């Protein structure tokens, strides 16, 4: 059905290409051979966490094609037809709405089928926004230049409400900033615009480059040979011009890093100098700096810990791995500077604040915050699954090289599942079901009930990446395991 849909809507699919960025795929951990285990490579792909990020809620409706009329409608998760088969095309839903084409006209509909914005001409999706265009030219045969001047763009939110009216000849979205361009006989004029539709800088520029990090953005504005950099804070709307003595300004997390005299320096969030940076690491709002033979830990811009006689090893999550030079032990500190664990074996990775991976020679172990092993067996493979909040919710562990015996633990380190399964896949929400494979057949495990709800007797079980349903062989079920069709 999806292939037909793509063929019949090639034009809209091209204009909605950015939607593909939200299709969530879960990647299986590749098997390790013993000679790879002998290689002490920090960037070993086999031990990287699979980060299954969920940027939006799955839809509560399913786009359905009538095979006789080749028209599209909507069914709800009980299998009831709620929007008749009358559309030529319906795009995937995101944040409650979707593009739907009927009689050659594009509309935005919600999950009930209500049209929230009609006859919008050409339209594309950029994250949670719709960018729509309209040709205001009276003479459609004008030259290409004049034609470009008469094509105007507007921005709508996910529910079809106008944010930015038809004013610019081009608009694109860069995180917390819109960039609008107006073309005329003098060239291109460009402005940065906030998400409420107001200009951040009143003066126009030849070009605007935007580097986002959370609620902050560094704007690089070019006018002729002149270049200026600004720090924009989306939450308050404030803008600070950065001194020209600082170059290559960038946001790493919510830290403003710049170059001065070929050295990296830390600026505050108004562009003021704080300190020179030597060796440093930043992760999730925590900055760790090696200063001589000491390690300094900053939570935001506040120093919370100084460790004299320590070496900075690595950062995972918002936690810092250090080495005590006096006894050689690995110590892990949280974002507040509190000691979490001290271990003689190398802390190889931190999966959650309560689950750590250690390595001694070629052996990996999973340990808890109390320093005790979660499994007494050697770990050959592990895979952390990130849920809606951007944090690991479950961890899949294999304790044999052939990957036939596995266990699943939660973020606290408690066992959820143990069995002879060759593959275990999480559903796209990362919280309800596990898809488990036994020999060549698939079953379904309910994480809440902690039991199999479907025995491993099926050829195929697939989780939808678009709506809240599961395909079991040729049947479709909702999350309550009620058969839809």
Please list the strands of the largest sheet in the order they lie side by side. 4-5-6-7
Structural class based on helices, strands and sheet pairing: mainly beta
Helix content: under 10%
* Bulk shape: flat
Supply Rg: 27 Å
Tell me the total number of β-strands: 44
Terminal CA distance = 14 Å
Low-pLDDT runs: 1-56
Main β-sheet: number of strands, strand sense, barrel status? 4 strands, antiparallel
The proportion of strand residues reads over 45%
Helix segment tally: 4
Mean pLDDT: 82
Outline the structure in words.
The chain is mainly beta and 485 residues long. Helix content is 5%, strand content 52%. It contains four helices and 44 strands. The strands form twelve sheets. Strands 4-5-6-7 form a four-stranded antiparallel β-sheet, with no helix packed on it. The protein has a four-stranded antiparallel β-sheet with strand order 8-9-10-11. Strand 31 (346-352) and strand 32 (355-360) form a beta hairpin. The longest helix is centred in the first third of the chain and has 7 residues, at 2-8. The chain is flat. Residues 1-56 have low confidence and may be disordered.
């Amino acid at each position: 059905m999806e292939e037909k849909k793509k063929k019949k809507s090639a034009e809209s699919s091209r204009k909605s290409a950015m939607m593909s960025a939200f299709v969530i795929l879960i990647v299986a951990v590749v098997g390790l051979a013993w000679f790879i285990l002998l290689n002490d490579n920090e960037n070993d792909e086999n031990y990287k966490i699979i980060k299954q990020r969920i940027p939006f809620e799955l839809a509560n409706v399913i786009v359905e094609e009538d095979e006789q009329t080749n028209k599209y409608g909507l069914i709800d998760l009980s299998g009831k037809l709620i929007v008749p088969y009358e559309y030529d095309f319906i795009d995937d839903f995101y944040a409650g709405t979707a593009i739907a084409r009927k009689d050659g006209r594009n509309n935005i509909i919600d999950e009930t089928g209500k049209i929230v914005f009609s006859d919008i001409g050409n339209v594309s999706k950029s994250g949670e926004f719709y960018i729509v265009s309209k040709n205001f030219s009276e003479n459609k045969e004008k030259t290409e230049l004049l034609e470009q001047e008469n094509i105007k763009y507007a921005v709508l939110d996910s529910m079809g409400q106008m944010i930015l009216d038809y004013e610019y000849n081009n608009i694109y979205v860069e995180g917390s900033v819109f960039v609008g361009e107006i073309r005329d006989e003098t060239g291109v004029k460009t402005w940065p615009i906030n998400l409420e539709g107001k200009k951040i800088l009143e003066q126009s520029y030849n070009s605007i480059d935007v580097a986002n990090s959370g609620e902050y953005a560094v704007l690089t504005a070019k006018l002729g040979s002149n270049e200026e950099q600004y720090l924009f804070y989306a939450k308050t709307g404030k803008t600070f011009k950065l001194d020209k003595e600082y170059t290559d300004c960038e946001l790493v997390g919510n830290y403003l890093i710049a170059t001065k005299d070929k050295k990296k320096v830390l600026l505050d969030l108004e562009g003021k100098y704080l300190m020179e940076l030597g060796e440093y690491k930043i992760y999730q709002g925590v900055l760790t700096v090696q200063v001589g033979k000491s390690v300094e830990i900053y939570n935001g811009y506040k120093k919370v810990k100084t460790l004299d006689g320590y070496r900075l090893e690595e950062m995972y999550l918002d936690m810092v791995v250090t080495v005590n030079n006096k006894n050689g032990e690995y110590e892990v500190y949280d974002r507040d500077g509190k000691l979490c664990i001290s271990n003689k074996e190398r802390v190889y990775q931190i999966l959650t604040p309560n689950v750590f991976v250690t390595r001694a020679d070629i052996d990996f172990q999973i340990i808890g915050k109390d320093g005790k092993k979660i499994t007494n067996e050697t770990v050959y493979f592990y895979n952390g699954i990130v849920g809606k909040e951007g944090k690991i919710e479950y961890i899949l562990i294999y304790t044999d090289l052939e990957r036939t015996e596995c266990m699943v633990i939660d973020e606290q380190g408690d066992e959820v599942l143990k069995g002879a399964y060759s593959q275990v896949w999480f559903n796209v929400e990362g919280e309800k079901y596990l898809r488990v494979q036994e020999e060549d057949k698939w079953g379904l495990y309910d994480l809440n009930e902690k039991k199999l709800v479907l025995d491993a007797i099926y050829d195929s079980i697939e989780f939808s990446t678009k709506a809240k349903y599961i395909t079991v062989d040729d049947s479709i079920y909702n999350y309550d395991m009620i058969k839809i069709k």
